[in-house]
Give the backbone structure.
Amino acid sequence: MKKLLSIFAVVAFAFSAHAGTLDDVKNRGFLKCGVTTGLAGFAAPDDSGEWAGLDADMCRAVAVAVFGDRSKVEFITTTGKSRFPTLASGEVDMLARNTTWTISRDVNLGFEFVGVNFYDGQGFMVPSALGVSSATELDGATVCIQTGTTTELNLADFFRLNGISYEALPIETNDEGKENLFAGRCDVYTTDASGLSSTRAAASNPDKWVVLPEIISKEPLGPLVRHGDHQWGDVVRWSLNAMIIAEELGITSENVDAQKSSNVPEVLRLLGVEGNYGEMLELSNDWAYQIIKQIGNYSESYEANVGPDTPLEIARGLNALWTQGGILYAPPFR
Amino acid sequence: MRSNLGFFSDEKFRSIFFQTLVVGLFALGLFFVISTTSYNLEKRNIATGWSFLQNPAGFDISFSPFLEFKSTDTHLKVYFVGVLNTLLVSITGCIAATILGFILGIVRLSSNWLLSRLVYIYVEFSRNVPLLLQIILWYSILIQLPRVKQSLQVLDVFYISNRGLYSPRPIFESGFSYVLIAIVLALISSFLINRWAKKRQDKTGQQFPVFSSSIGLIFIVPLILFFILGSPLSFEHPELKGFNFKGGLVIRPEFIAMFLALSIYTAAFISEIVRAGIMSVSKGQREASAAIGLKQTWIMRLIIIPQALRVIVPPLTSQYLNLTKNSSLGIAVGYADLVHGFGGISLNQTGQAIECMAIVMATYLSISLTISFFMNIYNRSIQFKEK
């Protein structure tokens, strides 16, 4: 009996103890990254079926850091509800899925947010024909809201605070929200302002919709990993930071090769010419060079996916570098 | 002849041994699952326990016809709202499916070729298309109804739009309670008349028009009383104010889609059960009752249906259980049932998946066992009793 129990104990240990996510990913040969079911600009398949967007670039950056190859990613779609169980169960190695960093998610759910790749806030979108110019005029409106999100809680707080009533219509995915809003089942759609821009861009006639000026919450969106695996957390955190620092230092995918002979010490450290920061992360020493070469810096990713020249038309705003009036800031690379 | 294996050749010992072994292995497996789970939960810093039930939910549920719900209410209240919504769609669905199923089952057996073929097509279509698709189909149709500002007005008081069906809400004024008392008294007395009439018929063979006299008692007497008391009932009419109708009663498209899909889907199965039940009654029964001069409607009501019910009720019970469990698909269209509200939103906001799922499963189990319990009592009451 004792022997049997000890066998069980060993099996239990084998099931529960991970060798470390970084080793798992390396052994598997590709990264499993949890993304949305499709939100243009953040993560959605493009015309050729390739995943593209700011979050998709985040996934690719990590794949490049580990493998030096931007294609070594499997994108796994998750809904607002399935994302946390999917990450907790180890089905994905990381989430880059418009997920708001909150204390309860960071502490109670057992995850670790490694940074912020998009500073967002919750907004409202209504048909322009409704003639509404402020969210406080929405008394009695039917509001489409994605369940299981922080926006759901903010919404209740906002209406309670302003003493106005509303009817919530719970929906599961952004597409469902679009369908209900366009059919007039709800008057208002509320989600992160970036998500609204994305939805508006996808409408057949974007001019028929307006995003109201109120931003009712802080929504710092960022990649997250399971709590407790610090080595892996570091890899994801610094993949993001490398892109931000590259923008600060003016390194782009175009000039990255020329920058290798720069005389700025931080540039040389980042590109792996000096120091052994790659080894510290158990990555190759040119990991950051490869990210910038294959994905680009933060600005390049932003402009290509959500910036003013894209259908989403989101100005840099809060997401500009701290030196340029925004709050995007990465710790020093040393 | 006894072998040398001793105890092990003893059949009784052997059976006890193997049964103990199986139970032991099962318990060990269960222990393994529970201990691994709690070990991993602790390792990943995932909170456990039941205290979250008392925490404020923080979100709103707009479909809560029986309880008033605010975002400051607890997760426990979310649970109760969910249970009530699940019961609402299950009970109304079971009633509608039974009525529709019985009618269709009988029509399917009719000698009218066209009617029976139509029912055949209906049955084959609705029971062979996944229920989830039917729910989504109904919902997609319903949200294509006119927008709220262009609502269809029916009979001046009902408004139909893709926000639902709005109707006037009855407001009971003082004095209406007398009408309710009259209805209850009428129900009791028609029950007593029914018993008295049966006894008299057994004794003397004379019949009494129980049905029409009961109708008279239940409807006409309270109605007269209602007018004598000066109509103590008024209606609150829905009015379009701002974004939505205010006041009145509303039935949401999410509920209508669930109700239609569940009852139409289950009615197809019930109609087949009813058809099988009726066909199981031997042809001789019908012929014999015709031979003693019973009317066609009486043959059905007094001879065929009571015998068919013995075959119908057990599978009917399992259809009721299916319908109740299928109501959990409400999540597909945002119907705020138990799975959607408590098992979905609360679970997701608190992250306590195991606790929430355990509660939801235990609830479905109790609802199903309750349905089985009552259907079994009913089943026993209609079984053939040998005298």
